[in-house]
Amino acid sequence: MAHQHISSNKVRLSPLRKPLFITAAAATLLPVVSPPVALLLGIALAQTTGNPYAQLTRRTTQWLLQLSVIGLGFGMNAHQAFQAGRAGLFLTIASIAATLLLGYLLGKILGIDKNTSHLVSSGTAICGGSAIAAIAPVVKANDKQLSVSLGIIFLLNSVALFLFPVLGHLLHLSQTQFGLWSAIAIHDTSSVVGAAGKYGPEALQVATMVKLSRALWIIPVSLLTGLLFRNGKSKIKIPWFIGLFVIAMLLNTFFPLGHVSYTLTSAAKTGLSLTLFLIGSNLSREILSGIGWKPLLQGVLLWVFISTTTLMAIIFLQ
């Protein structure tokens, strides 16, 4: 009954769907609209009027996120960033291995199909949607397996974007501690940057560097997946944008661009808000209702595991 009511609302609003969507997207470009608000706006539209440009926005989101990450490189110092990346190396390796192993065990216990379980585990262990997009062709995942795993990751990302900064302040985490924690425990780069940026500039720098160094693990995990799933001929996607991010950071460190760097960094942060709006706009009622409780439970348990263990390690080992 509720579903029919929402559907009838969409029919009544159909002439306004495109203007509403374009207006909302344009609003996220304003400085007063923070990344969390942009995400909420996208989800609200997805649940009411729907996304009239669903196919286009799915293709655009990944490119926009990658360009935004590259732009953030122009606001970072290479010496400080590499120090942060090195500090998080052990936690990165340990958390990826433990999450993939626990994900495999949970998938077996809950009786989840092998592909969906591995995609959810990989998305949680490495870098959310980017990892899932890279590994899906390796395991030859079908559309339902892909949409379910992406839906789970982006749903939990939406929660993390609001929850983590609040928890960070309650626990009195330093900028460095929060940056490290968010980079490891939040799935997707977009929400990591959004949460860390809200916490502070130093947290943003640490989080971005640790998250991008973590994203490089897509390559070995994809290779291992190809061996385990016996799909040796599958092509592996290499996250090329990370190299451009490093180049941007090196340029800013050794050849300061002054106002140009500030402009590019500001544009990148604006692009991130638009990215989160587009991600939210694709979380349709159909996607959320089609997730299923078993894969969702696996995703939640893995997220709780990686969040609590890394938080304890960061607090007690640093």
TrEMBL record:
GO cellular component: plasma membrane
Cell compartments where the protein resides: Cell membrane
Transmembrane annotation, as ranges: 20-43, 63-82, 89-107, 119-139, 146-171, 212-229, 241-260, 296-317
Keyword Transmembrane belongs to the record: yes
Short name of any one Pfam family annotated for the protein: Cons_hypoth698
Record's keyword terms, sorted: Cell membrane, Membrane, Transmembrane, Transmembrane helix
Keyword presence, rRNA-binding: no
Membrane topology: Multi-pass membrane protein
InterPro entries: UPF0324_pro
PANTHER family from the UniProt entry: INNER MEMBRANE PROTEIN YEIH-RELATED, UPF0324 MEMBRANE PROTEIN FN0533
Similarity section: Belongs to the UPF0324 family.
Annotated protein name in UniProt: Conserved hypothetical integral membrane protein
Organism: Chitinophaga jiangningensis
Lineage: Bacteria, Pseudomonadati, Bacteroidota, Chitinophagia, Chitinophagales
